[in-house]
Design a protein that fits this description.
Elements (H helix, E strand, L loop, with lengths): L9 H9 L44 E3 L2 E9 L10 E5 L18 E10 L8 E6 L2 E2 L1 E6 L2 E7 L5 E4 L9 E9 L26 E2 L3 E6 L6 E7 L4 E7 L8 E8 L2 E9 L4 E4 L14 E9 L2 E10 L4 E5 L5 E5 L2 E2 L2 E6 L13 H13 L4 E4 L6 H10 L2 E5 L26 H17 L6 E5 L1 E2 L7 H11 L4 E2 L2 E2 L5 E2 L2 E2 L3 E5 L9 H4 L4 E8 L1 E2 L16 E2 L3 H21 L1 E7 L23 H9 L4
Helix pairs in contact: 2-3
Length: about 625
């Protein structure tokens, strides 16, 4: 068709991307020169950006948001803290981003330093003072009043330091942060970031990119809570994390639906609490019922610590149809899952959405378009993103951010060749396992997450069977998609993991139901990728691309409808889920349902929803 432009076959194109042999026409402009804005760019308060409470799964009243203006400096790696700083940076936007106010690269040979002075009132120092970071990419060392508090390695998991013993006697306190991030020069998880952005690889992200905040807790306090729903028996299992000794303290959980108390129970420290829910209301995309829960820590009859949390009764599991084909079931009923591949990037904030409204916008539009699932692609979002998915009823497949790449990608099954598994160093393996476990632990809370995806398209894939089994054992409440898109590992006549996930652009396909439908859930983890550059709303003026490109919205819409027509028969044959690429354009990719700046939606929303509703029947 003369309206379509086939650039290269998918296979050749991805191999070229993997080995960095990108034609000049696909190389993006220098990222720091770009000023594409979103509807929220000008709404950012540089003094108080992202002021919302950052941890909705565990809410206390006493806290201070440290987002805003910090001093920054970029200097050679390994030097002492800078005596002078270069200027101001708006935290929590990455230093390379427009919204940071800096827009400078850092690189593996340098370190990024932050400094901020803040006051802590005497009334807030009666117990413990905790310093929280939502996420910092990648190695972080924190200093309070020039003393090193600790080091954290990991770009996607939240971390906390108890800084009580590092505070001055006065109210004014100094916080300094040192960050080192080698991007794709190191083995650490980094997702789509590369030092040389092009094609499907994007601008580096360095430093603080989620909210920084202080929390004031009692001397005796609960540091974490784990809630596991048991949908079959209409109950929640709750367990708390604390350093307190058993026998001296007890704790209490009270569950509410709206304002009505529906269950309450007490337990000793170290003892799990079981909350049985009468007249249970299940969580689903159509009815995202949430239960509010209050947790209290007691010493005798005195409450010494308390916070609010929530959860939902839902179960994701493997089911079977009349022909014995495996399906994904939600709460005991088969549900076809359909959603976009969601990169989670922003032209103004890169990894960081400009506002909470912007963060919510993508989920709301995805819901309005008739999708019931989002695949969060090789990136992890702030806790509030998952909270919004919980509230709105959006299923989530959560990828592990990839790193330490270089192995061969084989998209066909049953093919064995050299280099399929990445030969990682012991250090690289430890980095992967530590951060993947931290991500699973930190986001276990959110009922919207129903699938873990440890590997995508062979990117850094290693010890597939071991990692899959370890993931499943660590969180048996969710399904595991061990190898999305290729490098499948067979165990007998089935694939390792719960899901057989193929990728194909642009047309929908599925694994053979006759061969694999009774031993694995069959899914299409990526397809589509229909591209339409919208003038005035692209990262660069020309040489943008999609897997198949179009000249206008009408051509794009016609082709998308044909994709859905071809997808429907696959569902009847046992396809359990499909993922369309993608939610938004990202840098030079223009295959989004929306433009990168979120200013233009390329598809008619109501017609799109009507089209998608047919898939769930």
């Amino acid at each position: 068709m003369n309206c379509q432009r086939n650039v290269l076959s998918l296979k050749i194109r991805i191999i070229i991307f993997q080995f960095l042999l990108i034609p000049t026409i696909l190389i993006a402009q220098t990222p720091v020169q770009n000023s594409l804005s979103t509807p929220w760019t000008t709404l950012v308060d540089n003094e108080k950006p992202l002021p919302e409470y950052p941890r909705p799964q565990m809410v206390r009243d006493s806290w201070i948001n440290l987002n805003g203006q910090w001093d920054y400096a970029i200097q050679e790696k390994g030097l002492k803290p800078p005596k002078q700083f270069e200027g101001k940076i708006t935290v929590p936007f990455p230093v390379e981003s427009q919204l940071s106010g800096v827009m400078k690269p850092v690189g593996a040979e340098k370190e990024l330093w932050y400094k901020k002075e803040t006051t802590i009132a005497s009334k807030d120092r009666k117990g413990k003072v905790l310093l929280h970071f939502g996420a910092v990419d990648w190695e972080t060392e924190v200093f309070v009043n020039r003393k090193s508090v600790g080091i954290h390695r990991g770009g996607y998991d939240p971390f906390t330091f108890d800084v009580t013993d590092f505070l001055n006697n006065g109210q004014m306190q100094e916080i300094m942060v040192r960050v080192w991030d080698p991007t794709d020069d190191g083995p650490q998880p980094r997702g789509k970031q590369v030092n040389n952005p092009r094609g499907i690889w994007y601008t580096p992200v360095t430093g603080i990119w989620q909210t920084v905040w202080l929390e004031f807790v009692p001397k005796d306090y609960i540091s974490d809570i784990k809630i596991s729903p048991d949908w079959d028996r209409s109950r929640f299992f709750l367990d708390i994390e604390t350093k307190l000794n058993p026998g001296q303290f007890s704790w209490e959980a009270v569950a509410y639906y709206g304002t009505e108390v529906v269950a309450s129970e007490n337990g000793e420290i170290g003892q799990e609490i079981e909350l049985n829910i009468p007249d249970p209301k299940a969580w689903s995309p159509e009815h995202p019922h949430l239960y509010d829960i209050t947790i209290k820590l007691k010493r005798g009859n005195r409450v010494v610590d308390q916070f609010k949390t929530y959860s939902a009764l839902r179960k994701i599991s493997i089911g079977y149809d009349a022909n014995g084909m495996q399906l994904m079931e939600l709460n005991g009923k088969a549900l076809f899952q359909y959603g976009p591949l969601d990169q989670g990037w922003w032209p103004d904030g890169l990894y960081t959405a400009p506002t909470d409204e912007a963060l919510l916008f993508d989920i709301e539009k995805t819901k309005e378009m008739g999708f019931n699932m989002i695949r969060k692609h090789v990136k992890v979002e702030p806790a509030r993103w998952y909270y919004h998915c919980d509230r709105l009823g959006m299923l989530v497949w959560q990828d592990m951010p990839s790193g330490d790449m270089g192995n061969v990608w084989e998209s066909k099954i049953g093919i064995y060749r050299k280099g399929l598994e990445r030969e990682r160093t012991n250090e690289s393996e430890a980095i992967f396992k530590t951060e993947w476990q931290a991500i699973m632990d930190a986001f276990h809370h959110f009922p919207s997450i129903v699938v873990w995806v440890p590997f995508n398209e062979a990117w850094g894939q290693f010890k597939t069977k071991e990692i899959t089994e370890w993931t499943k054992a660590h969180d048996p409440s969710r399904l595991v998609n061990s190898a999305s898109g290729g490098n499948f590992e067979l165990e007998g006549n089935k694939l390792v993991g719960d899901i057989f996930d193929v990728h194909n652009y642009p047309d929908p396909v599925m694994p053979s139901p006759d061969l694999f439908g009774k031993v694995n859930i069959l899914t299409l983890g990526e397809y589509g990728g229909l591209g339409l550059p919208v003038e005035g709303h692209t990262w660069q003026e020309k040489d943008n691309w999609g897997y198949q490109s179009f000249k206008n919205k009408d051509e794009l819409w016609d082709r998308y409808q044909k994709l859905i027509v071809d997808l429907k028969p696959l569902i009847q044959k046992g396809l359990a889920a499909a993922v369309y690429t993608q939610t938004t354009d990202v840098e030079v990719e223009v295959n989004g349902l929306m433009t990168y700046d979120r200013q233009v939606i390329k598809f008619p929303i109501e017609a799109l929803k009507k089209l998608h509703d047919e898939l769930y029947k």
